[in-house]
Write a structure and sequence with these properties.
Blueprint lengths: L41 H11 L10 H7 L4 H29 L5 H28 L2 H13 L1 H19 L3 H18 L1 H12 L4 H31 L6 H26 L7 H18 L52
Helix pairs in contact: 1-4, 3-4, 3-5, 3-6, 4-9, 6-7, 6-10, 7-9, 7-10, 8-9, 8-10, 10-11
The structure holds zinc ion (2 copies).
One zinc ion binds next to helix 4 and helix 9.
């Protein structure tokens, strides 16, 4: 039997409480943030890493892609636009969800990180719009968004995410927050990758490199978001042992497994006629990703252990990620430097 605790939306300012929160949720916190006095000092490194990723769509000049667009086949254009609007739809859910979670997180340092993530999701959305505006007129953009809204496979895969997100909106509890976070990892850590694979596949052929540069920035952000959320879940479970039930651990395995299945279905549907992407290899890639997400949560591999079968999708390395079961809080701080705009695609 799972007991559940309602999350309290605390007041903005509580001068009688300490600045260093007593818990990440339902804790006592003044509401003031002093980064030098926080419960999990490593969060400052993570915050810095996220900020060092700062980028905006307008920094990337789309001229080369505009010229190349007309050289793409009709099939490539169709898949390009479907994936673009589908990814935009997913990012549209993230901006308000991350902001909403902030209201129920007591620890001000975590609030700040959720604020940065929310801002980055807004940039992701803008970048999809920016790509579209460079390539097709508004009427066609609208048509493509309608297509993404009504596509039955897109709807099916979004359904699980939406249920968890809406569940938290309607009833913010420890349990619904836990489920929201697990589904957020699925969205950011699994659902984007058939789309990423397509754009990197074009980049391997020296096509649409500016789009792929933006996609690689988005990928880097998403990897770090999924990593942060996995650490957030671990802290949530440590601080609230009542969440550490067999059912909840099983929930993680089951929902990641379901997301993997849906991502494979989506890949078969959207990438079926794209030459040069081996879908069996992609299935292995999604399983490889899922194992990584599980290990970041301190859980076991669900799938056969393998090396990355599609290293060309992983433009950014994982050095900054915690891939193992080792304790996050013992890690040395990382440094991160901004990559150049060309981002190594010339070498792909
Ligand atoms: Zn995003
Ligand atoms: Zn994200």
């Amino acid at each position: 039997m799972i007991t559940d605790t309602t999350l309290i939306k605390i007041k903005l300012l509580n001068p009688e409480y300490p600045n260093k929160s007593t818990a990440i949720v339902n804790g006592k916190s003044s509401g003031l943030l002093n980064w030098n006095d926080i419960a999990y000092p490593k969060m400052y490194d993570l915050y810095q890493t996220l900020l060092s990723n700062f980028w905006k769509a307008q920094e990337i000049n789309m001229q080369d892609d505009i010229k190349q667009w007309d050289l793409l086949s009709d099939k490539e254009k169709d898949v390009f636009l479907r994936i673009n609007t589908q990814l935009a739809s997913l990012d549209s859910l993230q901006t308000p969800t991350m902001s909403q979670v902030m209201d129920y997180v007591t620890d001000s340092s975590f609030k700040a990180i959720f604020a940065v993530i929310s801002q980055q999701e807004a940039v992701h959305n803008e970048s999809y719009s920016y790509i579209l505006s460079s390539l097709i007129p508004l009427a066609e953009q609208n048509e493509r968004f309608n297509q993404a809204k009504s596509d039955p496979i897109v709807r099916k895969r979004n359904q699980l995410i939406l249920e968890a997100y809406e569940g938290f909106r309607e009833n913010p509890t420890l349990q619904t927050l836990f489920k929201l976070c697990v589904n957020s990892i699925n969205l950011e850590g699994i659902y984007f990758y058939a789309g990423f694979a397509f754009f990197y596949h074009l980049a391997r052929q020296q096509k649409m490199l500016k789009t792929s540069t933006m996609i690689s920035y988005i990928q880097r952000d998403e990897m770090q978001h999924a990593y942060f959320i996995s650490q957030f879940i671990r802290i949530l479970l440590t601080e609230n042992p009542e969440l550490q039930t067999k059912e909840n651990i099983q929930y993680v395995y089951d929902s990641i497994h379901e997301a993997v299945k849906l991502e494979k279905d989506w890949a078969h549907y959207i990438l079926a006629d794209v030459n040069g992407i081996d879908l069996v290899e992609f299935e292995g890639y999604v399983e490889y990703l899922a194992n990584k997400r599980l290990r970041q949560l301190g859980l076991n591999n669900l799938y056969e252990e393998r090396n990355n079968p599609m290293p060309w999708i992983q433009v950014f390395g994982d050095e900054m990620m915690n891939e193992t079961k080792s304790d996050f809080f013992e890690q040395k701080s990382r440094t991160y430097s901004k990559v150049s705009q060309s981002n190594g695609f010339d070498e792909l």
